[in-house]
Write a structure and sequence with these properties.
By secondary structure, the chain is α/β, with parallel strands linked by helices. The protein has one domain (about 10-270): Rossmann fold, CATH 3.40.50. About 40% of the residues lie in helices and about 15% in strands. It is globular. The protein starts with about 20 loop residues before the first helix and ends with a helix.
C-alpha cells in the first residue's frame, strides 16, 4: 500500500475540502507522481494562489509558497528564475488562473517558462462565494447568475495551447490513475506544462445545478470525459456534450529561463 504520509503535513489535517470535492484526489495523484519520478521534497516547490485548489499547498510536505489571488504563476516565475533547477508546480483554480490571473497564464505559456500548472476546474468560484467563473457552462446557475449563466465559457486547455504552451493535457478525478500519468508527464516536460483537472464541486456548483450528490457528479465525469483517441473517432453528434481528455499538446520548443541564461552568458562574453 502506498504511504501518502511521507509526503503530507499531518498537522494540517483534517483538510477543509467539502465532502465529495475532488481536490483530494488531485492531491493524491500529484503525490504518487512525484514519488514515481523520485523527486526529493527539497527539489520541488509548490506555489498556490487563493481558492479551494490552493489549499493543496498547505498539505504537501515540500517547499511551498501560498500567494495572492491570481498571482501564483507570477510568483512561480520568480522562483524558477531564482533557481532554475527546481521543479516548480503551480496549483490554481479556474477562476484564480484564468480570470484574476488570466494575463499571467497566457504570457507564461507564450514565454514557455518551465512551470507545471495544475488547474483544478470545478466550473465556479468555490471558496469565495460561488460566483460565475470563466469556465461556468452556459445556463448554469451561480451566486452571480441565479437565473443561468449567459456567458460562453473558456476552453482553458485550448487557451494554453493557443498561447504557446509546450504541453497541455486534460484529466478528471474519476479517472484517477490516468490523471496521475498526465501529471507525471507534465512534470517531466521542459517548458510550460498545463494539466486541466475536472474536479467536482457539490457544494457551490452542484447544489445550484441539481447535482448536489457527489456520486451524481462523479458519474457525470465518468460518462462525459472521453479519451482523445476515442473522441477523434466519434461523429460530431456523438461529441455533443462530451469532453476530450488526455494529452492535447506535446511539442518541443525553447524554454524561456534557458534562453534568458544564454543571453546573459553571451553578454558577459562580449563584456
Amino acid at each position: 500500500m502506498f504511504d501518502y504520509l511521507t509526503y503530507v503535513r499531518e498537522g494540517n489535517f483534517p483538510h477543509i475540502w467539502c465532502s465529495g470535492c475532488g481536490h483530494g484526489i488531485v492531491l493524491k495523484s500529484f503525490i504518487r507522481a512525484i514519488d514515481k519520478l523520485g523527486i526529493h521534497r527539497d527539489e520541488a516547490v509548490m506555489v498556490s494562489g487563493i481558492g479551494c485548489s490552493s489549499r493543496t499547498a498547505g498539505y504537501v510536505d515540500i517547499n511551498t509558497l501560498h500567494t495572492t489571488h491570481g498571482r501564483a504563476i507570477a510568483f512561480a516565475t520568480g522562483v524558477k528564475f531564482a533557481n532554475p533547477k527546481l521543479h516548480v508546480i503551480v496549483v490554481t483554480g479556474d477562476g484564480d488562473a484564468t480570470a484574476i490571473g488570466g494575463n499571467h497564464y497566457i504570457h507564461a505559456a507564450r514565454r514557455n517558462i518551465d512551470l507545471t500548472v495544475l488547474i483544478y476546474n470545478n466550473y465556479i468560484y468555490g471558496m469565495t462565494g460561488g460566483q460565475v467563473s470563466p469556465t461556468t457552462p452556459r445556463g448554469a446557475r451561480a451566486s452571480t447568475s441565479p437565473f443561468g449563466n449567459i456567458e460562453p465559457p473558456f476552453n482553458i486547455s485550448g487557451l494554453a495551447s493557443a498561447a504557446g504552451a509546450s504541453f497541455v493535457a486534460r484529466g478528471d478525478v474519476y479517472h484517477a490513475q490516468k490523471l496521475e500519468k498526465l501529471i507525471t508527464q507534465a512534470i517531466q516536460k521542459k517548458g510550460f506544462s498545463v494539466v486541466e483537472v475536472l474536479s467536482p464541486c457539490p457544494t457551490a456548483y452542484g447544489r445550484r445545478n441539481r447535482m448536489a450528490s457527489p456520486v451524481t457528479l462523479m458519474e457525470w465525469l465518468r460518462d462525459n470525459c472521453i479519451p482523445v483517441k476515442k473522441y477523434e473517432k466519434m461523429s460530431e453528434e456523438e461529441r455533443s456534450g462530451k469532453i476530450r481528455t488526455g494529452v492535447l499538446i506535446d511539442i518541443e520548443k525553447p524554454e524561456f529561463t534557458e534562453e534568458y541564461r544564454k543571453l546573459v552568458d553571451s553578454m558577459q562574453v562580449r563584456g
